Amino acid sequence: MPMEIKGKYINPFTDFGFKKLFGSEFNKELLIDFLNQVLGDREQVQDLTYLNPEQLGNLPEDRKAIYDLYCENERGEKFIIELQHVRQEFFKDRSIFYATFPVQSQAPKGKAWDYRLKAVYTIGILNFSFHDLSEQDRFVREVQLLDTKTGEVFYDKLTFIYLEVPRFKKQEEELETHFDKWMFVLKNLHRFQERPRKLQERVFTKLFAEAEIAKLNAEDMRTYQESLKVYRDNQNTFDYSIKEAKRKGREEGREEGWNEGHHAAQLEIAKQLKARGIALVVIAEATGLPEEELEKL
């Protein structure tokens, strides 16, 4: 029986929803507009080329990286765009690992090179917050290499920008900037029944038209239903495991309870994905669990 889908617009935190809105040549202007808001005062993107999201290592046995989206602008700068729905224990580590591929790929083969690099940006769209309790209203986290003594930027061509969507608290009447509107859309699109009055720019006209569930063809509807089921299963499993971890932590009076529960949640998600026949390398990328551990499930 097909899953009942409530609401008028797709959920951008599903794999299908994110790729539908941002991952096609037809909708490239949506991604360009969004990235330019994330970049802020930096030189703006005029055009993008979608690149192969699967990055191989130098040797056959090397671990590869699979991005949600991977793009290059007209200046040769690379953009890794990652959507992360549930918290992953080593998400920061994965971000660093992923960024090494577009850095190393710039080295020409068999010729002299002066090591001059193009900028690499990792944009993480997170449906969770990092665990620090400071500045709980700060929803944009930008990371670069710094001189720890002076606080000055040591290297500005490797940038990680994380958008912690749950920390964005503004309501429609409080939206001031174009970036505010993008954050508002990402957080609330699947809850809207009508297009909000404040989102009248042309780019949002296109976004809402593309996001209408009623306009999906039969194949896309089936794909979205499956993607939505994975999204809901993962969220339910994660929520339950965290709840149990907190209970266990209270009963045993030790800090390790949360971490054990988090690992249990990732294992349960991995079991569900494995049961669907998804490749171990993809499950490993999604959960942060090593393939050796997944093989034993």
Write a structural description.
By secondary structure, the protein is an alpha/beta fold. It folds into two domains: 1-215; 217-297, no CATH class. 41% of the residues lie in helices and 15% in strands. Strands 1-4-5-6-8-7 form a six-stranded mixed sheet, sandwiched between helices. The protein has a two-stranded antiparallel sheet with strand order 2-3. The longest helix is centred in the last third of the chain and has 35 residues, at 218-252. The mean pLDDT is 86.
Characteristics of this structure?
six-stranded mixed beta sheet, 9 helices, 297 residues, 8 strands, 15% strand
Record the SSE blueprint.
Elements: H1 15-22, H2 28-39, E1 48-50, E2 54-55, E3 65-66, E4 69-73, E5 78-84, H3 91-104, E6 120-126, E7 140-146, E8 153-164, H4 178-188, H5 202-211, H6 218-252, H7 256-275, H8 280-287, H9 291-294
Parallel strand pairs: 5-6, 6-8
Antiparallel strand pairs: 1-4, 2-3, 4-5, 7-8
InterPro entries: RpnA
Protein name: Rpn family recombination-promoting nuclease/putative transposase
Pfam family, one: PDDEXK_2
